[in-house]
Every structure is written in structure tokens, then in C-alpha cells.
């Protein structure tokens, strides 16, 4: 036996793994652990609870400040406008406080990373955890969200004691995957998704190792952005470290340890307490995605909320199975989507931390699209998990409606990511691969008491921004042709959803560039409505590819762009230049574009709330005057009757038209059994490729607990 | 909540704890047993999504959902015609039993609210 073979078997027999893979014990546990002896000691040392309140406020200020600075100095466009967070973790690794702005999901997904380091590297002689160490991570099988999100993490020490962790997570521009721009729609295995870095040390004594940085840079298409952003992240966590040292110097390490523990425990307890006030029962909703990024295929995302006492369980049974496409999501990521819903929409007043998900129960089907195995591709997990969020939002809203004091019911936010992904040589000769940020301009859902907000923010980072077209033009070889709020691009209802923008970008100044899109919504809308309101429309992609080169386009633009309308449908109808006009689903694997080619895309609008016939006629008229709705919708959906160009509503005629529509509903509506007899199919339509359950009879597990107990 | 016996479960539906009936919040019509799926007590219509969302493109993909993939199922109060709920579903897909509420817990909520009101009155 060779020496190498002997070493191998000795290593096996010693119980040390050949590979430190994802730790199932860490990944499957979402609850905060019991207090450590040190936490007990620190809490006992707090003489005045007000000290903890003051320390909490100070930590909030520290994190907000660090995040603001990080946003200013980072490069990745998504992060620049809010796709990042900065947080402080307990020594045990539970995220105890994250910055208020930024991506809430990170707050619920990142704790496994320091836990892995603490469990596997702290006592490993070749690694260790010491003051000044810097760790990196991006492989989502070890925690976090998806691989384009890169984490920089440092241990916080006071003298010789490791008291906490400080980390920041940021969505990077490129991840060295099969496709440029961070995501990998082409990938059919995880090995096509680029960097997959288990938690590792990248610096010591507060210095990042240049050779290690160089190795990373060599793996991505945007090496300058990666270097700047990694240094920026390190700078941010160092800034937090210094301020926490100030806090401990002025007070004590016990105050910090006690405050972090208190934040976790009080958040968990408050979530459970509020949930306990809801009625018991089961609440369900389903949503659908319509593309796997390779082919059009309808996949189902189902959510059931079971609430009993203070226990709330989220189930996703019946959802589509995992598939060899990048749209799968891992269970801890889906838990973080649930955490976001509570942080952003239900209990936004509570501090963002791991206490949210710790208060909840989860029951996912292993091997499903929402609890995918570690070997499945997941870089575009948003396509399934964001759609799931819409179903989750509706089910939770119905669960808590009977308890109106806690929050305001809101129709579904638009939850998808149609935005331009770009890569190649820009006008400055720089190689880059990044996303534009229009996906942050999602339309807000209509509220119980008012309309949704236009081009508001993504549901996962509700305080994010989306920047200016001019900033895109400075960075990318593009000309922004228009952004505008188009008509009928939201859900109709008594209160209408917020609309979002239509944008058009034209390639200019580069001949080596690709565009891509990665979104559902080509045949089946992303957003549903609530309580009688309608969802949003579909959002196809329009591409205009000039046939005779850029000079033809330049001449047309210079002459006044005759026939150009800031409206994709009119552009396709009028065909103002000699070009190929294509309207397709909004997911396109990165494709070379020619100079002068422009892509037009709508972000989606929020869902409508309530019966559209209850919308005030004058409000419908205002929407009509402003171009938010078409005359067709005003007439057919809202039954508005109006006079003249100013769209003055005829109130009597409108009331009569609405009464007639209510009578028509009573005429055309069928009783349940008659409807089901006509509607029911026992299998999906043959012409619709379909993934997911299709069960008309309720599954056995839907029997209520009391029924189960009786049966037992 | 209307009085102490009706609790709002959705924008348009109460549960009347005295009669244990789903009740329309617009017209007060008693719709059916609160232990049932409320959708069993409404009128239902299969709506072509193109009637709600204008297509605008004469192409395979447009702003209108593809009616072969997606239908809008509309639920109406059988008494006043209010549109109580909508579902976007593939053709023939099972209707979702979205609310299955525990009446005992509603009674507990009603009692707690009555207690709170009595406390405030004192």
C-alpha cells in the first residue's frame, strides 16, 4: 500500500471527512439554539434593561451607516441600489440584527455560514478563527440564498474572547458561470453555475490575501468589479467592527452579547405572540411559473399555512418536483422567503433577524422545486421561490384578515425579475457582466385602503431603488430610449395595483456584447389579485433587430425617429425601421446583439384589491386620463361610462352599467357543482407541459388535526 | 366585526357565529355553512383572460395570458353579484380551498374582543 493510500485510509478511520460538505445538522435547523453559559452570564450582568434598548438603537445606526457607505462604494449595480445587507451575528452564528434596508431574505438565510465556520474551522489547526480573520462564502448549499450572493464575514473579538460575527452579503455582477451576469440559465447542473465556495478564509490580520483575490478574479468575467466589491465588503465589516469595539470599550462586551441574544429571543417571542392572535385554520394558495429557462413549461407552487395556537406551519406540498434547470430553490432559501414576508409585509416594525423564522415551522417535500437537493442547479431560484412568495402572501393575508389590528391587507406585489442582463466589452473597453436594475421597479400591490404604488420596489428589498437610465448609459454601451408607465400594466380592482415601467435599451458603442432576460410571465401572469381584484398582465419581451446595420438606425434617429412611439406594441405595429421585430417570452439565454438593436420590456404591476365595480368612477376616470388604463379596460372591466376627451364620468350611466354587470354575473355564474362538472379536468391539458400536483380530491394530509386525532 | 357575532374573514365574507353561516358583507345574505368551503356557496364563472387583460400584440405572446394555459375563475355572491374572489388557474385545475377556518378559535377571538370592549367601557 502506498503512503498516499495509507494516509487516505488513516484519514477515513480518524473520523475526519475527506470533504467538509454542507452540514445537514446546520442546514436543517432553523431555530435559534438555547442560551450559552456566556449569554446567561451577560444577560444577568445587565442591571438596567434600558441599556439593551439603547444598545439596540446604536447597533441599528451602525448597520445603517455601514450599509449606506457600502452602497456608495460598491460596483455591482444590483447592490448599488439595495441588493445587499450588513449584519451582526451572535457568537453561535445566528444573525441577530441586519440593516433595515437591503435584502430581508439574507437575514433569514445566512446564519449557517458562521455556524459552519465555528463548527468545522475554529478547531481545525490549518484554519482556525482568530482576530483579524476574513472569511468568504457563496455556495448556497452551505447557507445563504444563491451563488451570485457573495458573503464576507469576520469574527468580532474583545481582547481574547470571540463575542460575535459581522458579515455582509451582496449580489455580485458575475459569478463565472456558464452564462454572464451572475445567473446561469443555461446550467443543468450545479457545475455550470460558476463559483461554489464553501466558507473559507481569504485574509488574516485584517488583510485580504492578494493571491487569493486574484484566484477569484480569474474565475469571473468582471474582475475589477469583484475586487472592488470584495474590498468594499471587507471595509464595511471593519467599520462595524470598530464601532462595536467603541461600544464595548464604553460599556462592556456583556452588553453587546446580551443585546444580540435579547434581539433574537424577543423577535421570536413577539412573532409567536402575534401569530397566536390569528384564528386557527388552514389557508392555501397556488401560483404558477411558465418557463424553465430552456423551455416553456408550467410549474406549480403551492402553499398551505396551518395555524394552531402560536404555531404556524408553512407547507409547500403539491409544488412541482425539482428539475435539471436553474429554477430550483433550496429549503433554507424558501424559509428565507417566508422570513422576508414576515419582515417586510406583516411585522415590519420588528428587528430583522433569525428570530423570525425561528418562530415558524416548515414542512417541505424533499426533492421538490422548493426543497431541492444539493446537486440541483439553483442560481435562478427566484423563478420558483418568488412565485411561491405570491401564493404565500395571499395565504397569509387570508390567515390574518380576521385580526385587522396587526397589519393592512395588501394584494400581491409583483414578484419576478424581468430586467436586462448584459455582458461583453463596454464603451470604455472594459470587460463586464452585470444586470440592469429595473427589476427593482416592481409595482406594489393594492392595499385594503388605497391603490398600490407605481414602480415601487422589489418585494424582497422594499426600500431599494432602481437608479437612472443615465447611470446605465455611463456604465454599459447602451442608450436608454425610454422608461414610462404603460397602460393596463397592473391588476384592476376597487383599489388598483401599482403599475411598473416599460423600458427600452439600445446597444450603442460596442460590437461585442450580449443581452439576456430571465423571467416568467410570457403566458401565465406572475401576479394574482386579492378579494375579487384581478392580477397583472403578462410581460413579453420585444426585440427590434435592425437589418441594415447601425448607420441605418443612426440616420433614422438623427432625422427625428419618425414613427417611433414609446410603446412596444405600437413599435411592432408601425415598424418604423427596416428590422426584425420579435415578441417572445421574457427569458432569453444570453444572445449576441447588434449595434442599434433594442430590447423593450415591462416590469410587472401589483395585484388589484376588491371588486373593480366598486372603484369610484372618478378614480377610474383619472386612471383613464393619465393613461394608466385603456378605454377598453375602463369600459369592459370597470364599466365606466364617460363623456368627452376629459373622460368626465357619467355617474348615472356608470351605475346603471355596473348594475347590469352584476345581473349578468348572476346570469352567467354557475353553482359550484355545475361549474365543476363543466370545468374539471382530471389531468393537465395535453397542450400544456406541466409540473406539479393536480389532485381534485384533497390529499389525506389535509385532514385537520382534530379529524386526525379523532381517527386515531 | 359586525356586532359580536360576525367576524370578517375576507373583504366580502363574514362568518356569523350565531348561525355558523358564511355571510356576504355587501348584502348580508346568508350563503351557507361556515364549516364548508365558502366557494361551494358562490356562483362561479370561467373567464377568458383576454377579456380582462388586452392583448395589444397579434403574436403568440402578448400582454394577455394565453387562454390555453391560464383562465380566470371568478366567484360571485349569488345574492348581489359582488365579485368575492378570483383565481388564475390552468384550464380544469382543481379550485383552491383557500380558507378552512376553525370556528372555535373565532369564538375565542369574539370573546376576547367583547372583553376588550367591556374593559374600555369601564
Automatic annotation (TrEMBL), chain A:
InterPro entries: Hydantoinase_B, Oxoprolinase-like. GO terms for cellular component: cytosol. GO terms for molecular function: 5-oxoprolinase (ATP-hydrolyzing) activity. It comes from the Bacteria. Signal peptide: none annotated. One of its GO terms (biological process) is glutathione metabolic process. It holds the Pfam family Hydantoinase_B. Residues 48-612 form the Hydantoinase B/oxoprolinase domain. PANTHER family: 5-OXOPROLINASE RELATED (PTHR11365), HYPOTHETICAL 5-OXOPROLINASE (EUROFUNG)-RELATED (PTHR11365:SF23). This is N-methylhydantoinase B/oxoprolinase/acetone carboxylase alpha subunit. It comes from Conexibacter arvalis.
Automatic annotation (TrEMBL), chain B:
It comes from the Bacteria. Its EC number is 6.4.1.8. Pfam families: Acetone_carb_G. Keywords: Ligase. One of its GO terms (molecular function) is ligase activity. InterPro entries: Aceto_COase_bsu/gsu. This is Acetophenone carboxylase. It comes from Conexibacter arvalis. The lineage of its organism: Bacteria, Bacillati, Actinomycetota, Thermoleophilia, Solirubrobacterales.
